[in-house]
Amino acid sequence: xxxxxxxxxxxxxxxxxxxxxxxxxxxxxxxxxxxxxxxxxxxxxxxxxxxxxxxxxxxxxxxxxxxxxxxxxxxxxxxxxxxxxxxxxxxxxxxxxxxxxxxxxxxxxxxxxxxxxxxxxxxxxxxxxxxxxxxxxxxxxxxxxxxxxxxxxxxxxxxxxxxxxxxxxxxxxxxxxxxxxxxxxxxxxxxxxxxxxxxxxxxxxxxxxxxxxxxxxxxxxxxxxxxxxxxxxxxxxxxxxxxxxxxxxxxxxxxxxxxxxxxxxxxxxxxxxxxxxxxxxxxxxxxxx
Length: 289
Description:
Blueprint: H1 12-27, H2 30-33, H3 41-57, E1 63-67, H4 73-85, E2 90-94, H5 109-116, H6 125-132, E3 140-142, E4 156-161, H7 167-177, E5 181-189, H8 202-211, E6 215-219, H9 237-240, E7 248-252, H10 263-270
Parallel strand pairs: 1-2, 1-4, 2-3, 4-5
Antiparallel strand pairs: 5-7, 6-7
């Protein structure tokens, strides 16, 4: 049965800063750079603050899910952060692996086969990336679609959607996850707010979930949505200019009367600097209690 963290005296801002630094260093070191990766620094910040908010506000341990990992850059990022923030949390990363074989990544093969042998296959790249960072014990890497995740215990407190990025891919996964999601769980969607990314339905899927009145917008906050002409993906640029337009976050509503409703607001505040114009990766964050 999950329990709230007993280490109330832990300096959460310092802990998060350490986790951020260590996680980003591993996700971008020489071992990681051997493999294709598509996570920008600002995306990493959003992911880690969303995870930290979940750890600080939800009973732990909980299950972390990653749907879509390509060659494991975000997996390494999240696994290293988990090691610092919630060692007892369960982390499952799923990807059927089809996109790993795309011709755009063919340039990585010669060097990878030189290092790992002539029989190296891109299908193995995520596991090798994770293992190369000594994190195999922190995450279960499974070659499957998200809806095939082995969902038993503990319940889900964090999900990162990065596979398919269209409703036809997301909907069956969300249907499988929904009965296991904790109130207050954080759901992050890669490329949701990036108008330069290939066409995807991430933002629309976020809106669809929010329309059920069981989720709330966190990044961008609800006030940033506008249908005015010229707005990128229906988001007011002036409202959202202080945020990285890449990864979006929503939060599952807490049961009526539960504490912790400020978690989303705290995450939003953590991702905006005093200047309101850019993200500060290393800035400490006062996590919600």
